[in-house]
Amino acid sequence: MLIGVPKEIKNHEYRVGLVPGSVRELIHHGHSVVVETKAGGGIGFSDADYEAAGAAIAGNAADVFAKADMIVKVKEPQAVERKMLREGQILYTYLHLAPDPDQTKDLVDSGSVCIAYETVTAPTGGLPLLAPMSQVAGRMSIQAAAHCLEKAQGGSGVLLGGVPGVEPGKVVILGGGVVGSNAAMMAVGLGAEVSILDRNNLVLDSLVNRFGSTLKTVYSTSDAVERLVREADVVIGGVLIPGAAAPKLVTADMIKHMKPGSVVADVAIDQGGCFETSHATTHADPTYVVDDVVHYCVANMPGGVARTSTFALNNATLPFALALADKGYKQALSDDPHLRMGLNVHGGKITNEPVAHDLGYDFVPPEDVLAA
């Protein structure tokens, strides 16, 4: 199979779908790889590094899309990229379709086979291709929020960890999953007063076992969310419903009643965000203010630490890329029910139920399109 790696073009996105080591592994399996020139430049890899790994270098994205049987990316294809997809071509990347009707329509119209990292599952539960970026985003959310709290950034001027004789800042984390637990680790490490909310008692038990009394665990209800958000200096939104739009846990009215200069960081923004006042921002212009509350809603947060993120992502995505290339997508998806959960669009049909529900499409089970 010929695998193509275009250069990412989303604002301040420096990650790359395959690092040279991953390219070499695919070539070792008998495949060919074409990489757009300068695709890895943002994380320190030159065209010569890719050529040394056995890849061919293409002069532009159009050449990559025209030649490749499978496109491996990081972020969802932008409008100009979606126009280059063709019927039967495999697209393997993050998609986050539920809050993005325009992208969904273009992918349906393209007739391509779209496999989303964020809905591939694991035998033990969880989302193994989303997890590494959720780890990064959870950790980054605290350092970003701490920076936004600085007075010069529009914040209240609170140091999260405090100092002797001065109380620390209060951090409230919505969701105790991968994002939330990693945010908690960073916030606790800084010395903040940290509360985390979740509706799964097993998750809360696990957090208590991990953090002990340094972390306050709270069963999530509307009342608890409202009470804690009002008291917080920082609120981290880390709630995820796989494939579906994120629930709006924090209303605009709650935002109005937060302390002036407090900060909300919406890590769920890729799925539409869990604050009613959220809208996606970029690394070039990461924040905005609503009712004196600073909002940090960067949709590709891990792109800010692109080298770490790329290696972490490749570690997770490469085994599935090899399966798709070695077996062909139909056999690979048929053999592996967890990879099959990643199939979101196939030949003009929506094959992910939450996406179909949220965007008003008919849902066609992936088993049905593969059998046809």
Main β-sheet description: 8 strands, mixed
Name of the top-level CATH class of the largest domain: Alpha Beta
Separation, N- and C-terminal Cα atoms: 22 Å
- In which range does the helix fraction lie? 25-40%
Placed side by side, the strands forming the largest sheet appear as 3-2-1-4-5-6-14-15
Question: Which regions have little confidence, pLDDT < 50, spanning 5+ residues?
Answer: none
Total DSSP E strands: 15
- CATH architecture assignment of the largest domain: 3-Layer(aba) Sandwich
Give the count of helical stretches. Answer: 15
Order of SSEs: EHEHEHEHEHEHEHEHEHEHEEEHHHEEHH
CATH superfamily of the largest domain: NAD(P)-binding Rossmann-like Domain
**Helix-strand category:** alpha/beta
Count of domain modules: 2
Overall shape: it is: globular
CATH topology of the largest domain: Rossmann fold
- Estimated radius of gyration: 21 Å
Q: Look at the structure and give the mean pLDDT.
A: 97
How much β-strand is present in the residues?
15-25%
